[in-house]
Design a protein that fits this description.
Blueprint: H1 7-12, H2 22-54, H3 59-80, H4 83-103, E1 110-113, E2 116-122, E3 125-127, H5 129-146, H6 153-171, H7 176-192, H8 197-216, H9 219-229, H10 240-251, H11 264-267, H12 277-310, H13 314-338, H14 356-374, H15 387-390, H16 402-408
Antiparallel strand pairs: 1-2, 2-3
Helix pairs in contact: 2-3, 2-12, 2-14, 3-14, 4-5, 4-6, 5-6, 5-7, 5-13, 5-14, 6-7, 7-8, 7-13, 10-12, 12-13, 13-14
């Protein structure tokens, strides 16, 4: 008699951690540690602001915890669902998110804050399409670049146009930092795929020209560049953010002031719960804490790139590399802004900065990376193309030439 597994057994079996690849278990552990660290830092950074602005010190933390629960659901779903299905989902969801990115600029639909339209207001919640698009841009970009030599011409044109429209829509919100981040990750994936170097560096020149044009025609972005060059020229205006950030970082010393004991977050540091949250961490944990977090990021970088190297399927390899570069690169960009090594861009620190959309999108990226680690030895993805194009991508059966066949008889 054959004993068939029960439904609970079949559901739980794919999620059994012991059956996962070691790389997947390591990445899951690092992700949960990163999330726990982020919630603790956000709690410390947001309590004074919540009390002063809303009379509720836990306002930001409670909302972030809700976003973390939703994001963990997305993480579990990404770990469970095969990437083959995620590639299909991206083909449907990504165009919808591009439409939302464009609609957010329409007055009366998008919400404007600090001169930028990046959000939709749905009841008490704010939704930011430019954050939610990140995991699906990774999926679509990885798939297109991995199959580029074998794609029909119209697929190439449509794919590049849609991805370019997404980045352009983010750029005109305006959100230069996110647009540069997304374009840089796609550029890295194209480089890994073996695209022509001359064309890639030509794109760098064109992209740099577009970015400079956008900065020079947007007053507040130009002011940020000038403040970055000399923040002390306008210490109470454009240079105020960088000066207060540097004061917070420098006040931490070697060992820091202690958890929850930052002075800058309660007095003068702008956006201590989002754009400059790492300055609060540096003040409370000092140089040693900062170096420990940087070391943690390097460990995660090595673990993620190791998964990318070991993946046998090009699409999965690019997805793993892209997710790793996006998450770690965004973290280093945030640290660079806080340390005044880069101009202020409003780049959030993944899993740490306040924002439900960014938290959910980041956890979904983590989940896709972990799923790629679970599918290290999985083969090529063919199901995403229409049926009439699939046959041309399958390996053909070898048929010996007629002369060879006759001689063998």
């Amino acid at each position: 008699m054959i004993n068939l597994p029960t439904i609970p057994e079949r559901v739980s079996r794919p999620m059994s951690l012991m059956s996962w690849a070691p790389e997947a278990r390591l990445l899951l552990t690092l992700t949960l540690l990163w999330l726990a660290f982020g919630l603790l830092v956000l709690f410390s950074a947001s309590v004074p602001v919540g009390l002063m602005q809303y009379g509720d010190g836990l306002r930001f933390f409670n909302r972030q915890a809700l976003g973390a629960l939703l994001g963990l659901g997305g993480l579990a779903l990404a770990c469970r669902v095969p990437l083959e299905r995620w590639f299909r989902i991206a083909l449907l969801v990504f165009p919808l998110l591009v439409v939302l990115i464009v609609l957010v600029k329409v007055p009366g639909i998008g919400v404007e804050l600090n001169g930028a339209r990046r959000w939709f207001q749905i009841g008490p919640l704010s939704v930011q399409p430019s954050e939610l698009v990140k995991p699906f841009l990774l999926l679509l970009g990885s798939l297109v670049l991995a199959r580029w030599p074998r794609l029909p011409g119209w697929w190439r044109v449509v794919s590049v146009a849609v991805m370019g429209l997404a980045i352009g829509g983010v750029l005109i919100q305006p959100d230069l930092g996110t647009a540069v981040l997304l374009a840089s990750v796609l550029w890295c994936l194209a480089f890994i795929s073996g695209f022509n170097l001359f064309g890639l560096f030509l794109l760098v020149g064109l992209g740099g020209g577009v970015a400079w044009w956008k900065i020079s025609t947007t007053a507040y972005q130009m002011n940020r560049i000038q403040a970055f060059m000399d923040p002390w020229a306008a210490p109470q205006a454009e240079g105020y953010q960088l000066i207060q950030s540097l004061l917070a970082v420098g006040s931490g010393g070697i060992t820091g002031s202690g958890f929850g004991l930052s002075l800058q977050k309660a007095s003068s540091l702008p956006y201590p719960y989002s754009d400059f949250i790492f300055a609060v961490f540096a003040e409370e944990f000092g140089l040693l804490g900062t170096l420990a977090f940087v070391a943690f990021l390097l460990v995660f970088l090595v673990a993620g790139l190791r998964v990318a190297i070991k993946c046998t399927d090009p699409a999965r390899r690019l997805l793993a590399a892209g997710a790793t570069l996006l998450l770690v690169g965004q973290a280093f960009l945030h640290i660079g802004v806080v340390a005044a090594a880069l101009p202020p861009k409003g780049i959030p620190l993944p899993l740490v900065s306040y924002g439900g959309s960014g938290l959910i999108a980041s956890l979904l990226c983590f989940g896709l990376l972990i799923r790629a680690a679970r599918e290290i030895n999985t083969g090529d993805v063919l199901v995403w193309l229409p049926r009439r194009h699939r046959a041309r991508l399958r390996p053909r059966t070898f048929v010996p030439p007629r002369r060879v066949a006759v001689r063998s008889r």
